[in-house]
Amino acid sequence: MLRIGVLVSGGGTNLQAIFDAIESGRITNTEVAVVISNNAGAYALERAKEHGVEAVCLSPKQFGTREEFNEALLEKIDRYGLDLIVLAGFLVTIPPAMIEKYRNRIINIHPSLIPSFCGVGYYGLKVHEAALARGVKITGATVHFVDEGMDSGPIILQKAVEVLPGDTPKVLQRRVMEQAEWVILPQAIHMIANGMIG
Ligand code: GRF
User: 61 C-alpha vs ligand 1 centroid, how far in Å?
Assistant: First the structure.
């Protein structure tokens, strides 16, 4: 059984997609051991509680220094004995010590086809604004392992999504989530849980 921890900052629709996929059998051999958010108001924490999963809030604001937060986060992660850490819209930089300790055991979902529209400053709606501004006709999402860089780790899965005339950043964001993120994030977890990658 793969024990996963999901790190979130917001609404948690990707977290929901993971729960749904576990319930429907699209993800097998996996349990969500903990959901951690840096934001106490994140709806993702409610989703965790609804599924009987421990919901933890850990914010840099609760600590005097970033180092103290980093240590507390790593300690929390270690305590749950996780096999895989899933970043599902987690807007906090992962401490280098955690990347080192959990190499190839941290994955992230990014709402574009890396290497387009990724790296510093490309998060949330900004990714889709940039895709529309550039006029691409195809965008998508990427699941990748996390390394020391920004969206630079080995790619696990990608899925393309069409950009349609009249798209706004919000409309495009929603289509990328529905057609790509909520599909390939559960798929990647299933593959890792069943020894198909990593
Ligand atoms: C998603 O677009 C994801 O790709 C990005 O942050 C967003 C999280 O959305 N990294 P949600 O909290 O899963 O709804």
Answer: 22
Kindly give the distance from the C-alpha atom of residue 90 to the centroid of ligand 1, in angstroms, as a whole number: 8
Q: Is residue 49 part of a domain?
A: yes
Domain hosting residue 127, numbered range: 2-193
State how many domains the chain has: 1
In a domain? residue 198 = no
pTM (2 d.p.): 0.96
State if residue 11 touches ligand 1 by the CB under 6 angstroms criterion. Answer: yes
pLDDT digits (tens, 9 = 90+) for 154-193: 999 999 999 999 999 999 999 999 999 999 999 999 999 9
Structure confidence at residue 197 as a pLDDT band (50, 70, 90): confident
- DSSP state, 165? T
- According to DSSP, residue 180 is labeled I
Domain annotation covers residue 143:
yes
Please say whether the dihedral angle defined by the alpha carbons of residues 107, 84, 91 and 13, taken in this order, is positive or negative: positive
Instruction: Determine the atom of ligand 1 nearest the C-alpha atom of 11.
Output: 12
Angle at which helix 13-24 crosses helix 43-50, to 10 degrees, equals 20
- Span from the CA of 144 to the centroid of ligand 1 (angstroms): 14
Residue with structure tokens 């965008």? 139
Catalytic residue positions? Answer: 110
* CATH (domain of 152): 3.40.50.170
pLDDT digits (tens, 9 = 90+) for 73-97: 999 999 999 999 999 999 999 999 9
